[in-house]
Structures are given as structure tokens and as C-alpha cells.
Amino acid sequence: MIIFVFVIVLSITNATLRHGHGSNAVVTDKEYLKRYAPDWDDLDTRPLPEWYDRAKIGIFLHWGVYCVPSFGSEWFWSNWKGGKAKYEKFMTNNYPPGFTYQEFAPMFTAEFFDPEKWAKLFAKAGAKYVVLTSKHHEGFTLFPSKRSFSWNALEVGPKRDLVGDLARTIREEGMKFGVYHSLYEWFNPIYEEDKKANFTTQTYVDTKLWPDIKQLINDYKPSVLWSDGDWEAYDTYWKSTELLAWLYNDSPVRDEIVVNDRWGIGTYGKHGDFFNYQDRYNPGKLLKHKWENAFTVDGQSWGYRRNVELSEILSTEELFEQIISTVSCGGNALINIGPTKEGTIAPIFQERLLSLGDWLAINREAIYNTSPWDSQNDTLNGDVWYTCTKTTYNARNPIAKPSKLDSITAIYAIFLEWPTDGVLTVRDITMHLHSGNYQVEMLGNDGYLNWQISGGDVSIQLPDKAEVKSEHAWSLKFTLK
Length: 481
Known about the structure:
Distance between the termini: 54 Å
Protein name: Putative alpha-L-fucosidase
Number of strands: 14
Shape: globular
Keywords: Glycoprotein, Glycosidase, Hydrolase, Signal
Helix content: 25-40%
Organism: Manduca sexta (Tobacco hawkmoth)
Structural class: alpha/beta
InterPro entries: FUC_metazoa-typ, Fucosidase_C, GH, Glyco_hydro_29, Glyco_hydro_29_N, Glyco_hydro_b
Largest sheet: 7 strands, parallel
Oligomer: single chain
GO molecular function: alpha-L-fucosidase activity
């Protein structure tokens, strides 16, 4: 009996630590330890694991056989077989007649893949989690799938477990590791048979999809399962609710894992720990549920393209605007880059990520562990976005505006354009400054800034720009005296 009581107490403590319970009394121990039924109403009651909301910034990696032709996008195979002219012309001009997509796989060599170097780069960029494509729609797995004979990275091409190698180094650098997994496969004959049967059969789900996902979860214990490729069938075909119930109840990552909203026709923006809606989703306003903006540094493709133009790459300013506006509105920014077939990351992607890391080294407290404030985008100055920090974590709704019971420790105003006269004019913070109890400083600079109120707006005298450390976006911190 003594041992039994000890186990129960330890379970409660672990759940408390993993979810952050204790900082918000609206979620009880019973709710954290409950078992979830395989239906959406019950699954949707699960509290969001606290680590994810606090992380804010992740790296997305689209890597697969499609990086061998590295032309057009990661949808190369589908576009080529679908008869799109530029893909057919590309193949006719560069490969012999009868060449098959499978023949690209041995060329996916990854001979320069250095997982330690990748992990250090992502850590320097300020990422808190990394999501790797364990399998895209082409069906080729980056792990030794027991259901993908001769169509996985251990048997063909790199001849190594890419998922396992990267998972290890990402965790060694203190980041969370996650996997993307496409539910469907374009040309898998088992899936095609289910499709021909109008999805009244589930042979593919039972013999391929579920075994692969369970292998991923059990072998690599990811903190994120990023689902995709769901849109041809309803969640009942994919057995989505059964899968999530297993993840939340019995999997080795049940207390930590988070999933997105791509679980079948009609599930976007309705079900999941966080919502993606569509690709590159950034609403520019506060939502009612935790969400993520997954976007590409290459504006045209998720996978690597050899013919990418510099003009198609997000500028540093555009990258920062995506991240800052996303975090202000309660979202996480998942920044996608496509590695090459050799296993390298293009210098332009490295440069963008390292610039972000340099910026976060100065402005990190305005991003990590923050919550949405009363306003997101200043009503007078559209270049200004707000965040705040609180003493409590709202496990029930982590992206809610502060309540009267919240204790706000700081308010941040991040502005994207430096005013020509060196004076930043904003409106939404005026009421707080009018009380006379607040002081203003710029992150990375010493001393407090002078300000004055006129006509309901506040004008803040900025430091000499030549003495300011940030080069692209700047954060003002408002705290009580």
C-alpha cells in the first residue's frame, strides 16, 4: 500500500511539472491525469503542455528524395507524374528516357550531413524545438521504417537513420525534437486501393500508417507530431481520434507531446493542441486557441531548390516581421528551410538563422515565455507589436489576454521601423504611462528613456541609433517603478 501511494503522488508531481500546473488553478490534477476517450469532444479538453507555448520559435526541415532533383518544390514527383509541362521538360532535358523517381533515391547521399553542426546552428538561431520530415508525401522515410522496405534512408541513399541521428544532437543542445509525418502517400498501391474503395477499407492505415507512427513515437519519443497529407479523407478513415487517444493516454510521450490540426477533412482550426490552418498562416490578430505559423524562408518551396533566386528568399526584416507579429498574437513561429541532398544547409539559410540568433540574444525576453497583451498591433503605429510577461501560466487558455487576476511583470513594444526623427509615437500604452508609475528602457541599452503624452498618444525619445545594438527590430520594455 505504501508503494502504491508513492507512485500516485509521483505521477501527480510529474504531470504538474510537465504541464506547469500550480501556476494556474483552473486546471486540476485530475484533469492532467485523466484518460481521454477517442472522440474529439474529450480530446479537445487536454491542456496544452506548457513547454510549447513558452518555446515560441522552432525550425522546420523538409528533407527527402525531392532534394535530389531540387527543382520546383518538394511536390516534384506528383507534379512530374501529373504532367506539368516544366517538370516534364526538366526530366526530358536532364535524364534518360524511362528514368523513374525511385532512381533519385541512391543520389540522396547526405555525405556531408553533420547532425552536431546542424543542432549547434539551430541552437545559435534561438530555436527551442526542431521538426524534421520523417516522411513526406513521396513515402520515403528518413528512419528505418519496418513497413517501407527499400524505400527508407537506412537502406537507400544515406544508409543511416537520419531521424535518430538528428534527434540525439537536437536534445544534446537543449532543444525539443519533433517529427512531421504525412498521413498519405501519393503512389502507395495500398493507399490507392483504399482510395478506389472510397475509403471504406482501411488497409493502408492498419498495415502502414499506424505501424510507422507507433514506431516513430516509441523509438524516438518526439515532443511534436506534425501531421499532414490528411485532406483526401475524413478523420474516421485515418482513425485520428484513436491515434490521439493512444498518444495522450499510453504513449511514452503522453505528458509532453503536442499535435497540430491536420487529421482529416474538416479538422483544420478545430482539433489539435495547436492549429496550423493552412501553410504560412499569420492572421495578424489574436485567436482563441494556440496556433503556429509554419512558413518558409524560401518563399516558393519547402524543399531545397537549386535554382532559387535571392529575391525569393525572405529578407532579414521580413523574417523578423513574421516572427514578431506571430508571437504577439499568441502563435509560435516554425521557420522552414530545406537541406540539400548532400546534407548541407545553404549559406543564405544559415545567414538568416544566425541573424535571428544575434537579434534574440538582445531581445529574447520580449519573445520567449511571453503572453499576448491587451493590444497586439498598436492602433496608431502599425510597425509596433506588443507582448507581455506574467507571473502565471494560463494552462486553460495560454494565449488569452491578461485577466484582472494576472500580475504583469513587463510589457514589451517591438517596433520594426526606426523613426526618422528618433521619436517613437504610439497609442495603446498611453494609459499605463499616464499613471506615472511606469519606466521605459530599450533592451540591450542602459538607462531609462524620456517620454511625453500629448493628445492621447505617447512620444518616446529613443537613444542615438549609432549606440543601439539591434540592427533590425527594437524592443522597449515597460515596467513599474
